[in-house]
User: What shape does this take?
Amino acid sequence: MTGYDFDFFVIGGGSGGVRAARIAAGHGARTGLAEARYLGGTCVNVGCVPKKLMVYASHFAQDFDDAGGFGWQVGPRTHDWPTLIANKDREIARLNGIYQRVLEGPGVTVFRQTATLLDPHTIALGDTRVTADTILIATGGQPTLPDDPGVKDHAICSDDVFHLPRRPERIIIVGGGYIAAEFAGVFHGLGTQVVQLYRRSLFLRGFDQDVRLALAEEMRTAGIDLRFNAIVTRLDRSADGITAQLRDAGSLTADCVLYATGRKPNTEGLGLDRVGVALSDSGAVRVDDDFRTSVPNIYAVGDVIHRIELTPVAIAEGHALADTLFANRPRGVSYDNVPSAVFSQPPVASVGLTEEEARRRFRTVDIYKTSFRPMRHTMTGREAKTFMKLVVDADSDRVVGCHMVGHDGPEIIQGLAIALNCGATKAQFDATIGLHPTTAEEFVTMRTKAPDPGEAARQAAE
Ligand code: NDP
Assistant: This one.
């Protein structure tokens, strides 16, 4: 018990904040949480959840096409965008309610207001003031658009996609990260003509090079106009839509231009400078290994600290912090072997090191990879391939990276993340009996090392 109104006050009701608040309250801390917008944050409202629902929606087009090979006759089909959006909104509203109840259950006091720090222990909520012993900043991030001419006037960001009144017939997507690749697949599947523009020579920077190449090939085979070294210099409204001027490559016109060019931490208007919470050069709240900011009683977790911007990471951080502060169970979060997926079509899923990272870290690296036509497509005639790759530290025989481009990749890689965390060796992978017939069994049946193309060839490819 302290002399403050709350033992713990969380600013931000997204994945990290909600987890921290409810666990802290469960440990007996008098807990408050402020969220002005929507409970569940980016993930539930304008991120993972609605995105995945839209990925499901868009995949039906391929399934209808493929059904013929199995004897089905699928009649004419149309897609009704407003129905998708309305049903998606209903599901999001249901989840918002669950988040509210998850907080109320253990007794968290929820303020549906903007919170501003007045001093290290005082928070303004409109005209109300509350005090707290410990404060957590969990305000997440938001999409960011470049300052190039016309972009802020004419482009939309990922938040806007979820509320478009109608599906565009033509879309230009700028960016080569998770969000750009995911929406390229969504819109293509729903019938939109998609051009994706990435400014460097190969998208998904940071992923394994083979994975990046494999996804690019699959997306192009599927009919997405994916262009690299394509730099947009300005956007203008034209009679026919929105025109993007490309450096060195003319112009393109579409009904909608989506910029998926990264996200920035939400730190404005919180009063952080007033209380002395330091930010890093990237604008993120700077924290130590215990998530403590430069002000000793103020902590931060999730996208606002800009470490790994993934929902399960924010949840792990919030949970560890609450256990540390209020259950006398000090613990941190391991950022090793965090699996991630790009829900492109086909999806990409990875855990551990890329080949490039492993070669920098280990003396000798063995690579096992395979690319094959999935069984389903032997009947559909679709030109689609699945790519799988294992990266092994030859000296210890430990598998240090698993990568996949193909249907069900995210479902498969989650299990392999456990194996990597347990330190599984290639010999143990090999000793595991495959589950037949699946795609996943390829991960335990790859026996032939890929020849090492040599450093010179690798550098040329990069
Ligand atoms: P990313 O940082 O992943 O990608 C941003 C992309 O935009 C990069 O390709 C970058 O190019 C490009 N870019 C940046 N600035 C410009 C510019 N001025 N002009 C043209 N292109 C530019 O951001 P996202 O917005 O896709 O996603 C943000 C984060 O959210 C991700 O990193 C991820 O952590 C998380 N996320 C996770 C998802 C998942 O788990 N499935 C889904 C969606 C998001 P360059 O490579 O040259 O920097």
